[in-house]
Design a protein that fits this description.
The structure is a homohexamer of 312-residue chains. Chain A is an alpha/beta fold and 312 residues long. Chain A contains 10 helices and 12 strands. The first copy, chain A, has one domain: Ureohydrolase domain (Arginase, Chain A), CATH 3.40.800.10. Chain A has helices at residues 19-22, 52-58, 92-109, 125-135, 164-170, 191-200, 207-213, 215-225, 258-268, 290-311; strands at residues 2-3, 7-9, 32-36, 66-67, 72-73, 79-85, 114-118, 141-146, 179-182, 203-205, 230-236, 275-279. The longest helix of chain A has 22 residues, at 290-311. Chain A is globular and about 55 Å long. Strand 2 of chain B pairs antiparallel with strand 2 of chain D. The complex binds calcium ion (12 copies). Residues 122, 147, 149, 151, 161, 236 of chain C line the site of one calcium ion. Chains A, B, C, D, E, F: This is Formimidoylglutamase. Chains A, B, C, D, E, F: InterPro entries: Ureohydrolase (IPR006035), Ureohydrolase_dom_sf (IPR023696).
């Protein structure tokens, strides 16, 4: 169901500590688990996001567990790479079920951990949150979504990366008003989707509004909207501007600068978060590996924030 | 004189409305016309800007007529793609004359419309404005230019993309003081051109000044300088930073971020504008299609602003 | 020891003045010298920074000696390209010694000039500053470093581009407290290096802090920390974000925007500066030549600031 | 079931005849139909082959219906672009069924035509041949496969682009001995697949053998092995060397040169062929559009050969 | 009329002799002149061929005047870079006239030399041959053309890179039967151009025919067709396959391999040749600089052959 | 001295056997050892060849131990990845000594094995052969070199990648007449190097000669020249044409096609070979990873040939 990572870093105990040396492959009680989902078959546009879990792992020799901006040493934080979900070669429905079961297993096996997931296309969020709900049926779940798109498409034609939020709301796993999407902009959501957002009560904070509010205030506002028990964060890297993140299936101009995303995640990461995923990074169409690196930077900014929170 | 677009989108009436479905190919009284000028022969540096009209059209399946940032539905706006100007294969002077005649025809044929033109290199602006003056000989014309360069070169050596403003001023079609150029920066205008700007009274608002003023204030200031009857806007995409727009013949660092350009156009677009052009986008040297997409985004931001203005 | 540039621009006296026409190849009393160091052999990661001096020279036909942002004409400023240091093909120690001797020669030969150096990897800074100290043994030297990294690695394993600051401090050429590094961010300095910075008293101003202070205030603060006789500025272009500068050996997201770097250099350049270097630009892995152009833009912004200062 | 092409070329009757002008959109009795299958969801490795039908159509302004090598004017040949198969967004099984039904429809509707199909990934071949068998249940079908891979993987884990030949043989639609694969080479077929080829009696002509036989002799030999009623040709562009065709999901060195592929298709095309497909071209990872162009060249070489055969 | 090269190599007398050291800038009686024509304004498709003369010059530090394949030391050969033709910024007709005058001047000034010209787009061939005819009005001129295209387009719509052969034949400067084009292939010449070739009696040797004849025999055959006084060779680099030469405006698959072009030029170069040009190399869309390098390699292969001929 | 590979593949025992599953990490008596030398500091031109050992390892999930061209199953062959040589960060002389010691250790530790080495730049060959001589002082060593260059430069200025053969010959480790270089072509060896080859008696078989002889005959001829006890093969991937191998520091047109290199290695590999290295592959400037893949293909072709030889 979950297989070991396809390659393991040789870890060094002397010399400067890199993420590759600090990551754990076997830890029963980590602060956080990292689960890979090498799956891009439900992406509307052609996507190599299935390559991202390993592309992410390959960045680990150029990152350290120390965050200079805030002078946070997160080497005490225990992050365990538990491997990748095993998937079906063509059956999307079955693959989604396998992710859901894998997530159930992780939640039970590591019940005190933060659950981080490395996608994969955005369709993975639906089974992951569904598993969280199954594990905590009485708890209400809120979603902080960072995305250029609403992902509220009708899924009668398939559970694609354009539908995860709609699925969760229609299946009553998450209430529409418990979803806050930060970052939409431009001309990438048809009017019918705007109407869907209004219909379900999903909160949309366009990028322009985020900028006029400021990042801290935006995050505070988003959390104030979420009167829930558990928070799930989903980061679609296509929220970034194409100049910063050309390596996504639907890259757009007019998006966030990467430092804005990092600031958002540093704010969000200082809160109680149950799970987070990073999706829609396509290493095959990246330029100078910049999107892969930005996603890794975003991930570790969030981890640094969690460490700061634990210290306080 | 004007030929139909070289390809036509198959338009769908069901499903989410995309720009490709919304664009009109036949409309006698559109809010705006869109005319392509596939011409790059007068560019000083080698340019594939002649490829842009079709590259622009090809983006239309990834844009919708809904602008999320300001929640503007511009699907009621009628934009008609009237095709491309037919040009001579090598005779620049004749080609410029053909553009001028085509523009004359468009102004007469669609006399209530906004005229939008998709270049092409910047040399096209001179014949387009000349046509506007011929159609409205008693009206004064002001130009808002967004550009890294002044385009005030002496044209004794040819009417290139470095000369359109100088042509218009010397021919007394537009007064120098009725030109406001927003965005110049860096080391890309020789001293002789600065002196030309001073001589003609052209207003230069360097990017640094724009940033210290703020975008709304910059636009208000620019319009306050223009006591004219008709406003022509010309957008040279090389005003953008090379990180956002590598696909121009003379890309430079230190330029505008694309969101600044979009904000400028959203402000400008809420005013009375007679015509606008977008020039110097070279799809052949683009990276990840980002410049083409940024120019399309800029274009539709302007259209959304026009819709907002019409609604108010 | 120093050889003429490997190619010389044909200089024009008519037409618009470009940098290529304005640069001097022979001037005994220039305002500034420009020395190339085509050396990348001490870079930890594979680097083509040895190609940068000539790549920089090749940009000179697209820059002019006029800075539009501040309307500064620096054509009166005399900048002399004195050529490149001759180096050994494999012996890093010998090559470093050759740079030191070349710098000694330049300081003596052009004793009234500003010394600008075009690297090369960051290891070159140590011999350059060492030469400056030898020439001015009684003077205290301060360093303004713009860098993502501290360059404080232990050099027992070689004097690489990760060690120049450590070398200078350990050799007591510069005091740790006389070094101010502006721009570090993210996850690119191991904890041991943070501890080294603290140990030596090197001042670190992370990018996030620079942004909250503002650029003018940051520069003022940096200079207030430096109670020294001579200021040496070292600009590692990897301080820029990978979206603006993919052409460096260790490009990272989360770095400076190029306009921030230009503003820093415009502030710094208005002060008394003895020498400056630009390092770690790798033209071989650049995208759309944007990093090379950004480094050239940064260089001339500094020169424009020097001209402004001379005028005042 | 089949939708019109998403864009239509504006066709010119004067000037030089290009493929775009010659292609037919409505013809009841064409010599050949062209059907697009924008489907890449069953590709084992990430693939943008779904983009190829339109990328192919976009090349039509740079090809003419005249083949210089053999001085063949194929403008009399009537080729009709009948559009694309409509597919499900995620359900691979349903999409495969939709292709099969579409192919059934085409065979019935255009019963005298050659059927050409533009993929898409290689999984499409199985439903297409299945349809052919359903339409001609008493006829034996032979397959000429040009491919680096055998496509004989076990499909218990999904009907991917690695399985079409295995599917057809196991379902007894085509006999193993009625399959000839020309072009395999190198290290890209595991031993278990070599054993499968032997087990099913599939004929493998490695590239090295093809080169020692010569192309005409190889084709003659291949046809001599096929004592069948109908011939189906399937061209996996990954049979080409990566230097000629980087734009495929699994590009390899050591493959065919493009002129060898063209010669093969010119030989094959002079025979009685019932249907042909071109698969696994991924425009998203192409370099200089060379793979897309090579596939188009291959396609029209085959058509030219058909014209030659019709003339004789 | 002719200006010095825009940059000059610093030449070394010690160390290994490179082309940059061996090239002459001032020689009254060179074996050959090299004239640059930085002109691409008459190219039908967008072209950066105007950048090639300098791109060619920049390769000179990686080539030596020794040809290993045939052990030919051509360092005794005197090749003089006489600079570039000065051109008009937009007037194609005037620019063509300026080339013609420049060529007249070169022929008179260096009357014993071989004339080599570095384009530029293919339109330059017409004025160059016209000058040759003017200088030698009683001599018959033959053309060996290496090209994918016939360049026999009707020039009523402009004297583009698609028309030079037609111009020369219609103006009776060269007879149609004195033109041999080696290398056309594929689908890149419309039927009307095939008819034009037949009408004018231009000899077409398609690539396929060249390969079946062999290169030596092809060259012998071509020369046997040319019963003329002077031979002009024109090399359109788009005769190469796109895998070898992506950096041309109309790159095609199915073309020559570069070693075939080199062999052709080595054969041709051993004959009496009056002039040669190399056209349609676009450095701006090259990949890994491979087209620029291939064109330089082709050029020096021809020079090596001339040296061999001189020695014999 | 030798460190484990920086990452280890997770190996699978079920499913299709890939190279990643078949490679051994611990085997005392392998048929062959594989040693990585991540070293590019002695390359004359900037090189990322230090990245190749790991880039090579990363290809192992797309290759199988079965060679289709000759139907050779080399899964019984035992290849052991023994890791990488530990090197000094800047001291080239020390690093070369470390390689020599590592090679000594390998020869002693695995005395029955073939020694394969993955570079690294070409300077590594000198210490590797020196170690071989030290281990077998009474044996004569012959070198088969596949290279565009002679590597006979004078090393008084450093032991670069341009000098290994000269070093070995001058140190009398290998006699000049015991070196056969297959593949030089074009303009990439100065006359002084041709003279050096003649002086030392090194055999040069230019590519053109290889092609006229045929590959089998060339190899037979090369071995007939080598009346030695041990054969060392060194493969500089820059022997390939730039169209096939853009990812080398000095890529040239006019080189070998990759299938020619593979055929050479298949012939050579069926002989008694003591050691082989593959050098000068620079993954950082590769296009579509084609050079890395070609080098891996070359490597496994050689291994397949060794297996064939062992079987016979
Ligand atoms: Ca999403
Ligand atoms: Ca999204
Ligand atoms: Ca302009
Ligand atoms: Ca401009
Ligand atoms: Ca540094
Ligand atoms: Ca740094
Ligand atoms: Ca296949
Ligand atoms: Ca295949
Ligand atoms: Ca031509
Ligand atoms: Ca041509
Ligand atoms: Ca070598
Ligand atoms: Ca070599």
């Amino acid at each position: 169901m979950i297989v070991r990572p396809s390659f393991l870093w040789q870890q060094q105990t002397d010399g400067d500590l890199k993420i590759k040396d600090w990551i754990r492959y076997d830890d029963d009680t980590p602060h956080a688990t990292m689960l890979g989902i090498p799956f891009a078959r439900a992406s509307i546009s052609a996507s190599g996001a299935s390559e991202f879990p390993n592309a992410f792992r390959r960045t680990w020799d150029s990152f350290t567990p120390y965050y200079v901006d805030e002078m946070i040493d997160f080497s005490p934080y225990r992050l365990c790479d538990i491997g990748d979900v095993l998937l079906h070669a063509t059956d999307v429905t079955k693959s989604h079920a396998m992710m859901e079961e894998a997530m159930m297993y992780v939640i039970e096996r590591y019940d005190k951990s933060l659950y981080t997931t490395i996608g994969g296309d955005h369709s993975i969020t639906a089974p992951l949150v569904r598993a969280l709900k199954r594990a905590h049926p009485t708890k209400t779940i809120g979603i902080i979504q960072l995305d250029t798109h609403f992902d509220l498409r009708d899924f009668s034609q398939g559970r694609t990366n354009g539908t995860p939020i709609r699925q969760l709301v229609e299946e009553d796993i998450v209430k529409g008003r418990h979803v806050v999407n930060i970052g939409p902009h431009g001309f990438y959501n048809a009017k019918s989707l705007i109407e869907a957002a209004q219909h379900y009560g999903v909160h949309i904070i366009p990028l322009k509004q985020m900028r006029s509010l400021g990042i801290k205030q935006t995050v505070a506002h988003a959390f104030s909207l979420l009167d829930v028990d558990l928070i799930y964060v989903t980061v679609d890297i296509d929220v970034l501007d194409i100049a910063y993140a050309p390596g996504v299936p639907a890259a757009t101009p007019g998006g966030m600068r990467s430092n804005e995303l990092f600031s958002l995640l540093f704010e969000i990461g200082q809160r109680d978060i149950t799970a987070i995923d990073f999706v829609c990074i396509d290493p095959l169409r990246d330029v100078a590996n910049m999107t892969v690196k930005a996603a890794a930077y975003a991930y570790f900014t969030f981890i640094a924030a969690q460490q700061k929170r634990d210290m306080e």
